[in-house]
Write a structure and sequence with these properties.
The chain has 14 helices and five strands. By secondary structure, the protein is α+β, with helices and mostly antiparallel strands. Strand 4 and strand 5 form a beta hairpin. The structure holds a DNA duplex.
DNA sequence: GCGCAGGGGGTCG
DNA sequence: CGACCCCCTGCG
């Protein structure tokens, strides 16, 4: 089924560091596991994807996953034209959307991501999913033997993950926090052991869809230091700061990669 | 090819 | 502010 979203680039999303389980099957083609289902999807033209699902399946699941009801062109248009760096970043990152992944998967994935590199994050998550046949639920993890969890190679993060699973289960009736404000949700997740400000913001942004969340990692610290005198004007972009963060993160990393790969003259 | 530093989308004490 | 588990990468 062809879907013209007006703003989508699968390759860039796959490299944007917000999802760790997309499987590239061919040029511009991916198998995407989410919410217990999988979607085969291909970039068929700029801003257009070909999704292997029915219109019903799209509207009742995948549309929300791809954040299809948010106008990303409007977000780009709202960028201060005097901000040259952000303008360039948004142009380079054209097509990146903020995925709405399942809350528990986001919590677990970003706990694993701390002080870690993306290749290892992906392999450890894959080991987990291969063991259980899918991304393990919180209860599944709490019920299995600790040695199983050890075998995923998470290092010291495994106790954080198990603690989070227990907290998530105990608080489950409230833990969706769908109605909470960004500030409330952030404060709640900060009470988890192993979740600091950066991961809490990732959970708010990727798991709960709070677009004002602005996760600051080492890359963003560099960017904000170099281009914003150490402080990004989040208040100016209440409805989109997290999206812009994603644009800048992608832009900085891809240009750094291009720099590295450049052949010496 | 293989061993060996170095460092990684941070967080805790 | 230093330590942190362990894998991945790059270099010898």
């Amino acid at each position: 089924m062809l879907l013209d979203l007006g703003f989508i680039d699968l390759d860039k999303i796959a490299e944007s560091g917000q999802c760790f389980r997309w499987e590239k099957t061919d040029d511009h083609e991916y198998i995407i596991p989410a919410c217990g289902k999988t979607l085969k999807v291909r970039q068929s033209a700029p801003d257009v994807i070909d999704a292997d699902c029915t219109i019903d399946e799209w509207h009742h699941g995948w549309a929300a996953y791809f954040d299809a009801y948010t106008d990303y062109r409007a977000i780009v248009a709202s960028i201060d034209p005097k901000d040259e760096y952000l303008t360039r970043a948004a142009e380079a990152a054209h097509g990146i959307r903020i995925l709405k992944q399942s809350l528990w998967e986001v919590i677990a994935s970003f706990i694993i991501s701390q002080n870690n590199n993306i290749p290892r994050i992906k392999t450890t998550i894959k080991r987990m999913c291969d063991t259980f046949g899918d991304f393990p639920s919180a209860s599944r993890l709490t019920l299995c033997d600790h040695s199983i969890v050890r075998s995923f190679g998470l290092g010291y993060r495994d106790t954080y993950l198990l603690d989070a699973a227990i907290r998530y289960l105990c608080d489950e009736p409230e833990s969706e926090h769908r109605s909470d404000s960004y500030a409330e949700a952030r404060a709640y997740y900060l009470t988890y052991k192993g979740i600091g400000e950066k991961v809490a913001d990732c959970i708010c942004l990727y798991g709960l869809g709070h677009k004002e969340a602005f996760p600051i990692d080492v890359w963003m610290k560099r960017i904000v230091g170099a281009h914003y005198k150490g402080r990004f004007p989040v208040e100016q972009y209440k409805r989109s700061a997290g999206v812009l963060q994603q644009f800048m993160f992608y832009y900085e990393r891809s240009s750094a990669g291009a720099e590295r790969d450049r052949q010496p003259a």
